[in-house]
Amino acid sequence: MTANPFRLVRLERVGSTQEAAREMVRSGIGGGTAILAGEQTAGRGMGDRTWQSPRGLGIWLTIIHRSARPKGEWPALTVAAAAGVCGAIEGAGLRPRTRWPNDVLLSGRKVAGVLADTESDAVLIGIGLNVLQQDCDFSPELRGRATSIRLEAQRDGIEPPDLETMLAEVLSQMARSLRIFESAGPDAVIPAFWERSIDRGKRVTIRLPSAMLVEGPVIGLGEIGQLLIETERGAVAVASGTVVRMEEG
Ligand code: BTN
């Protein structure tokens, strides 16, 4: 484990670290800053979802990243961040998988999510990682669909890491992922997501923002992390959309 590669700002309680980071960017804070909350009262997930962020049980973090890569490549930062989170979880002895576009899973349940926003010339890379929750700490809607590092470590009979150890690992793996992205671009980070993907070869149905449905087997990831689906009309690269159906198993 290396020394913290980011300037770390710790906030005890905040609405959302994404919004705190946005304010900091507007006030001129530099890249390479990581905002960590002990608790979020209005944690945001992708789309209009919320993100449960109870005090002291997880890593609720936004990294302010100023990229020198072309803006058109920035969408691949979601994939790069998910791969970084996977690296940290693997450091704890567990075997995470990814699910397009932004999920990290353990035993088929969501353990972490990534949310990337932009604010002027900065990317705000939000990471929510469930670390210490027991089942009863999840709301009834999440129970059975969400998990934590602690629950999975206990299930595997290994010692769960504490929050600070996990944080150091996440920061170090994120620094590594961002370094690779900056020096070699999306091509260099996408394989780490795809190799761990549960979507490979599965039939999916995606609802595009236009409400159109795209259906077919997943055959890969596109140049900036889009989901490549084989359809009757050829391969379609989906940049954003909602997965409405996915083949089990
Ligand atoms: C998702 O899976 O939908 C994305 C979840 C992202 C949650 C993190 S927690 C830290 C940061 N602040 C937020 O309000 N959201 C992200």
Features:
249 residues; five-stranded antiparallel β-sheet; 12 strands; 5 helices; seven-stranded mixed β-sheet; single chain; alpha+beta; binds biotin; 24% helix
Q: Explain this structure to me?
A:
The chain is 24% helix and 32% strand. A hairpin with a 2-residue loop joins strand 6 (109-119) and strand 7 (122-130). By secondary structure, it is α+β, with helices and mostly antiparallel strands. Helix 2 packs across helix 4 (163-184). It has helices at 17-26, 76-91, 149-156, 163-184, 190-194; strands spanning 7-14, 33-40, 58-65, 97-99, 103-106, 109-119, 122-130, 203-207, 213-221, 227-231, 234-238, 242-246. The chain is globular and about 50 Å long. The mean pLDDT is 95. It starts with 6 loop residues before the first strand and ends with a strand. Strands 1-2-3-7-6-5-4 form a seven-stranded mixed beta sheet, with helices on both faces. A five-stranded antiparallel beta sheet has the order 11-10-9-8-12, with no helix packed on it. Biotin (BTN) is lined by residues 16-18, 40, 43-46, 49, 51, 53, 60-62, 102-103, 113-115, 126-128. Biotin is lined by residues 16-18, 40, 43-46, 49, 51, 53, 60-62, 102-103, 113-115, 126-128.
